[in-house]
Write a structure and sequence with these properties.
The protein contains seven helices and 16 strands. It is α/β, with parallel strands linked by helices. It folds into two domains: about 110 residues, Immunoglobulin-like (Sandwich); about 180 residues, 3-Layer(aba) Sandwich (Aminopeptidase). Strand 11, helix 2 and strand 12 form a beta-alpha-beta unit.
């Protein structure tokens, strides 16, 4: 009898635990923000499942409480460009996450709206919580309570294009680092060392051109930390670009293949803005016209940093560290200098080719 009672209690405990886990299972995996052409400021929270949110408007802030936790790799603070909000904060409080939007002007109830977008299997977008804030005192038109999903207003991330390179903020990301050596060549060359050397040289060339530069790392370290998952480490690099309000994000790598005869230069993009491919093409053109290496072209890829950053992003594969000839080139100071100058020139060409600000 006692044994049966214990089994029953254990079953009840397990059932209660599973219910609690199911109730608090939704988590926020990313935050995106942007400003539409109608000057509507938008914040989007990506979630692992359906959830709900409630907003409380104060004189100096808009607070949104979301039913769900916060993934540890998601940044807690975002600097933004808006005439209403200058930064966004996330605070995890157990099974809830609070989104704080400190306001630079007082809002009316009609100046903002919050709604839920369900997971879209076609576009592969997750469940989302969306907060829109209207510019000025125009407000939003009242929406009838029909239960229908409010149509999404397309919002563009804020970054500058055109007008030359002077004053533009570029974030450089030397691939790998710290506990992650990246690819290793036959001579023992570590990708993390080469990418850092090239990136530091690119920084100097860009500064000479009048650009502003931020780096995800300036020494041999993990950006997030030594015990990070791949997603945490890569998100930390994206967060660095977001925090510095970058106009362009460039991640520098060395390629590798199981075939030691494969070599060449390639540039990767993800078409999240109208300018990712343009930036990749401009950099690739300068890289390939100044070297005798194979031009592997401009390629679209689902790389984390390209996809998750809000500004145009290019991931460059400078050469193949697995190719003995190219490994030797990558180790040489003159090649690193020439590679860095070509990247900087390509970035300059990109800002010259794109016209005007968004």
């Amino acid at each position: 009898m006692l044994t049966k009672l214990l089994i029953l209690l254990m079953c009840l405990f397990s059932f209660s635990f599973n219910l609690a886990a199911e109730a608090s299972g939704t988590e926020i995996t990313a935050l995106h923000w942007g400003v539409s052409k109608e000057n509507v400021f938008r914040v989007v929270l990506d979630c692992t499942g359906p959830t709900d949110a409630q907003a409380v408007l104060n004189d100096d802030s808009l607070m949104v409480s979301v039913e769900g936790g916060l993934k540890p790799y998601v940044s807690k603070d975002y600097k933004v460009k808006s005439d209403t909000v200058d930064h966004v904060e996330l605070q995890a409080t157990g099974e809830k996450t609070v989104l704080q939007l400190p306001l630079t002007r007082k809002l009316a109830d009609s100046d903002y709206k919050i709604f839920v977008l369900k997971k879209d299997p076609v576009t592969k977008r997750p469940d989302r919580i969306v907060i829109d804030i209207a510019s000025g005192n125009t407000g939003f038109k009242p929406v009838a309570s029909t239960g229908a999903v409010i149509p999404s207003i397309l919002a563009k991330p804020t970054f500058e294009i055109g007008g030359g390179i002077k004053g533009k903020m570029i974030t450089l990301d030397p691939g790998h680092g710290g506990t992650d050596p990246g690819a290793i060549g036959k001579q023992g060359t570590k990708e993390k060392d080469i990418t850092l050397k090239i990136a530091m040289k690119v920084r100097d060339y860009l500064l000479d051109k009048g650009a502003e530069v931020s780096m995800t790392r300036t020494n041999d370290k993990d950006v997030y930390g030594p015990d990070a998952t791949d997603a945490q480490e890569l998100q930390a690099r994206v967060d660095a670009a977001q925090a510095n309000d970058a106009d362009l994000f460039v991640s520098i790598h060395c390629n590798a293949s199981t075939n030691p005869n494969v070599g060449g230069i390639s540039s990767y993009f993800f078409p999240k803005t109208d300018y990712d491919k343009i930036a990749a093409a401009a950099i690739q053109q300068d890289l390939t016209k100044k070297f005798g290496l194979d031009d592997l072209g401009v390629r679209q890829a689902n790389f984390y940093v390209n996809k998750r950053s809000s500004m145009p992003t290019v991931l460059i594969e400078t050469a193949f560290i697995s190719n003995q000839k190219e490994e030797k080139l990558l180790r040489s100071n003159w090649f690193q200098n020439k590679m860095a100058k070509a990247i900087a020139d390509g970035i300059e060409d990109y800002f010259a080719a794109t016209g005007g600000d968004q």
